[in-house]
Write a structure and sequence with these properties.
Elements (H helix, E strand, L loop, with lengths): L1 H13 L7 H8 L3 H12 L3 H19 L4 H7 L5 H12 L3 H7 L22 E7 L2 E11 L7 H8 L3 H9 L9 E5 L10 E10 L8 E5 L2 E11 L2 H17 L2 E3 L4 E7 L5 E12 L3
Antiparallel strand pairs: 1-6, 2-4, 2-5, 3-4, 3-8, 6-9, 7-9, 8-9
Helix pairs in contact: 1-2, 3-10, 4-7, 5-6
Amino acid sequence: MLERLNEAMDHIERRLDDRIEVAELARIAWTSEHHLRRMFSALAGIPLSEYVRRRRLTVAGAEVLAGERTLLEIAVRYGYTSGEAFARAFRAMHGIGPGEARRTGAALRSQPRMSFRLIVEGSSSMRYRIVEKDEFSVVGRKARVPLVHEGMNPAIADFIRSIDQETVRRIKSLSDQEPEGIVSVSDDLAESRAEGTELDYYHGVVSSAPAPEDLDALPVPAGIWAVFESAGAFPQALQYLWRDVFTEWFPSNPYRSRPGPEILRTRLSADGSRAEAELWIPVERTGT
């Protein structure tokens, strides 16, 4: 997987001054667009689109300082429709406008070219299983919240506290299959998965029962799920689990992620400092 991903990275470099199609990158990497975006974001720490933007502005910056083309020629070459649009993007990355950078020979910022490799330490193993599930629904309460990569998510904490205990009891009573009990469900995330983008968060259960009218329901079609187990400090261990699944497990196994909700079942210790968790990720076989 990583070798093919690096071939896609080479393709980006060859086409920084041309149109880059995510569909073509996914074809080169032998995967889906959805999985390519998820894998890249997990490995690189930034969205694929942001990486391409930064690489283009890095190369464009070198051409600005070289002085061999006009600023408008450089803007058009790297996909900007006007000199003003190029100047705004240039300043956002480099902290200085292209005209001033050329006049003063200013030091500019650089986005290094990325390549990926897998380091196998062998110090720990990841517990997982593959589960095929019929269609089901997530039933509970839903809120639109910002994405937080590290630490507690205040919006989610406030939302959970706002649900009265009687409603929680009714929701819990609808649980009739794995994963059992109250779960946290993330759905409809932005493709970039950038910090601060929004997602639908469900505090609910997995159920085949009809949803009461006063509760929210998310229908989920039948499919294959990879189920990962983890235990450790809360919430860091849970957030690291997401990272490890995409940076370690997917590159080493014949599966890729597919669109669908991500389900987390968490059981906290009495003092709330540690947690045991199951993370359910929708997957499909790669055929390789």
